[in-house]
Amino acid sequence: MTTKTFDSVKLMRELRDQLGREMEHMTPDERLRYIREKAAATVLGMRMSGSGEEAQPDADEERPVAGS
C-alpha cells in the first residue's frame, strides 16, 4: 500500500473552513466582494484582468498569422 505524501481532501476542507470563519459575519454583498478581491490577487486573476506581466493581448490587437 502506498502512503500519501499530500492529502488534497484535507487541504480543501481546511481552506473551506478557514474561508467560512473569515466570512461568517459578512453580508452576501461583502462575501462576494471579498471573494472577488481574493481571486483578483492571485497570479491567474492578475493575468485575466490584464494587470499581470503575462496578460493576454486585447482582442482588437493585430496578431501574427501562422505561416507568415
Can you give me a brief rundown of this structure?
The protein has about 70 residues and is mainly alpha-helical.
Structure description:
The model has no long low-confidence stretch (mean pLDDT 82). With 68 residues, the protein is mainly alpha-helical. The N and C termini lie far apart (55 Å). It has helices at residues 8-23, 28-40, 43-49.
What percentage of the residues does DSSP assign to strands (E)? under 5%
Overall geometry comes to flat
The largest sheet is: none
Residues in helices, as a percent range: 40-55%
What integer value in Å does the Rg equal? Answer: 19 Å
Q: What's the total count of β strands?
A: 0
Structural class: mainly alpha
Oligomer: single chain
Number of helices: 3
Distance between the termini: 55 Å
Low-confidence stretches: none
